[in-house]
Each structure stands twice: as structure tokens, then as C-alpha cells.
Known about the structure:
This protein has helices at 18-31, 50-53, 56-72, 89-99, 104-108, 111-119, 128-142, 156-173, 213-221, 242-250, 254-265, 271-298, 300-328, and strands at 5-10, 36-41, 81-84, 148-150, 181-183. By secondary structure, it is mainly α. The protein folds into two domains: 5-190 and 300-328, Rossmann fold, CATH 3.40.50; 211-291, Tyrosyl-Transfer RNA Synthetase (Orthogonal Bundle). Helix 7 packs across helix 8. The protein is globular and about 75 Å long. Adenosine-5'-triphosphate is lined by residues 10-11, 13, 19-20, 22-24, 151-152, 154-155, 189-190, 198-202. Residues 10-11, 13, 19-20, 22-24, 151-152, 154-155, 189-190, 198-202 line the site of adenosine-5'-triphosphate. It catalyses: tRNA(Trp) + L-tryptophan + ATP = L-tryptophyl-tRNA(Trp) + AMP + diphosphate + H(+). InterPro entries: aa-tRNA-synth_I_CS (IPR001412), aa-tRNA-synth_Ic (IPR002305), Rossmann-like_a/b/a_fold (IPR014729), Trp-tRNA-ligase (IPR002306), Trp-tRNA_synthetase (IPR050203). Its EC number is 6.1.1.2. Belongs to the class-I aminoacyl-tRNA synthetase family.
Amino acid sequence: MTKKRILTGDNPTGKLHLGHYVGSLKNRIRLQDEYETFIIIADSHAFAYPKYVASPEIVADGVLQVTMDNLAIGLDPTKVTFFAESGIPEIYELGFLLSMLVSHNRALRNPTLKEEIKDKNMGDNYSLGFVNFPIMQAADILCVNAHLVPVGEDQLPHVELTREVARKFNSTYGEVFVEPEGLVGEVKRLVGTDGNAKMTKSLGNTIFLSETEAELKRKISSMYTDPSRIHPTDPGRVEGNPVFIYHDAFNSNREEVEDLKGRYKTGKVGDVEVKDKLFKVLNELIAPIREKRAYYEAHQDEVKEIIAHGTAKTRAETQKTLNSVLEKIQLR
Ligand code: ATP
Ligand code: MG
């Protein structure tokens, strides 16, 4: 029996962080045996953001960085297919054709685009490509006919658009596309170390999966907690406190977490102890990732080969999909 497919991936705009991990990477690892998995390194997509238009070298380096992160967390390159978006011109062709099926108003009616315009200070200078990028993302997903798309909550509007486009195409021209489902992680959206609603590179509130021990310690010790608490003997607030949100997300010792929360609320524990315990938990998560990443950093040709091989394999699949599309719309 053939396996169902997963399509998921990352913008190669820097190293991956804990937000990526809880939102999408954890599900990738869990499902890599059950599904045939394609991981897109969305390099052409990155140019949707003004910041990267003038800095192609960041994206070029990012391709290696995010692939190394994905390998370091335990995705097995003999099972999972990694590919570079720019290596698949069929995605551009498909994206162009799909854009004809989406009204301009519908493209603009997207809460995540609106949020990114704000978070990334784009004002009204965002490009036509930025507005179009969820449609290009639909092309990424549909070109391999994925069934499941593991993503953080912010990506769900794009998956919804993908489903609409697939439905519209199928009902207009005949069945070609699977209508994919989004799958969010247990933590749908991880807060930043500064307490902002989203951990994101653009706000500089991240903890990277490749963090050194010293840097991890520094970032945790300067984390935002309860601003109204001055002394360790003051009763503190646990709800919405990023340090406790991280304990809930990463500390599997529930007893310890409940004990810390109880003492925090009654002013019987200082930030230092709560943060020290968080450091131990996160360092345990990151240490093996760090070690595995060091191997790939020393063997970057191997990483490039994994991408080249995966891109060729994916391209053969997308060519089949595109041929079916062109036949249906009588362009072949
Ligand atoms: P950054 O904002 O830090 O540049 P990004 O959002 O651009 O990151 P993407 O490549 O767009 O990163 O995201 C890759 C995956 O990680 C997506 O599925 C996205 O939803 C998820 N993700 C990113 N940040 C978070 C977060 N803070 N919490 C949960 N999921 C997240
Ligand atoms: Mg994003």
C-alpha cells in the first residue's frame, strides 16, 4: 500500500528555533515513518519579504542552515525527501495557473498576511509577490499532492486557501488534487522570550535549536517573567508568564512544574530557581541536536547532496502533477 504524503517546510531565512520545533518539527519527526514526507526549503518564497530581497546571501546560507537543523533534530534523510523550491520550476508554473482561480480580494483577506505586515514593519510597501505567496504555497503543497501539512497555527489560513483552490480546480476541470489537512502541534504558537505572542526572528525573541550552552543560559536568565514581581517573596503570576509557558511546553516532569507554580504563586521561589530548572530542561533537549548538527556542519557536502537528490526526486513527482493539470485545462 502506498503511504499518504506530508508536505511541510521552512523559510531559509536563518536558523530554526523552539517555535518551529513545537509548531511543526515535532510532528515531522513523529510522522516520518507513517507518511512519505517532503520537506520544502522555500528559498524563492523568502523573497516575499523585503528584508531578503536585497540580501540573497542570507537565503543562500539559510538553505543549508535549515536543512542542517531538520537533520539535527532527527529527520532521517533516507526516509524524508528534502527539496529546494527554486529547483522545481513546475511550482512556478502551477502557482501562476492557480493564481487565476483566486480573487484579488480573497488573497488580501488573510489574517496571517496582515499580522506579518505589522510584525515585520512592512507598512504599505509589501510586494505583489508577498500577497501572492500563500497561492505559491498552495502550489508547493499541491504539486506533490500532500494529504497532511504539519504547521504552526499562523500557517492555517494558507492551508485553508490551498483547500479552496484545490476544490475550485477539481470542480471546474476534474479531479487532480487532494484537499490537504493542516496539522498543528500541541503548542500551536509559542510565545517569545520577551512575552510577545509569537517567537519569531523578526522580533529577536528566539531560542535557536543550535544555541550554545552559554547563550542558552544567557537568553533564559534575561527572559521576561512577571513584571509586577520585585522580590522572590512577592506572590507571582503564572498565567501568561513565558517562563512557565516554556515549562509547560518542554518540562516532562509535571510534579516539578506544579511545585514551582505553587511556590511562585505564594512567593516561595525566586525567578532564578525557576529559570535554572528551565535551562536544564532545554539544554537536555538541545544538547543532542547540537551534537548532531556539528556533524553536518563538518560535512556540508553531504547536506548539499541530500538537497540535490531530494530536489530531483520531487521534480519527477511535480512533473506528473503539472502534466495532469495542463491536460485538464487543455493546454496539452
Ligand atoms: P520567523 O518568524 O522566526 O522568521 P517563520 O514564521 O518565518 O519564522 P517559517 O519558515 O514561516 O518561519 O515557519 C516554519 C514553520 O514553523 C511554520 O509551520 C510555522 O507555522 C512554524 N512556526 C514558526 N514560528 C512559530 C511559533 N512561534 N510557534 C509555533 N509555530 C511556529
Ligand atoms: Mg512564517
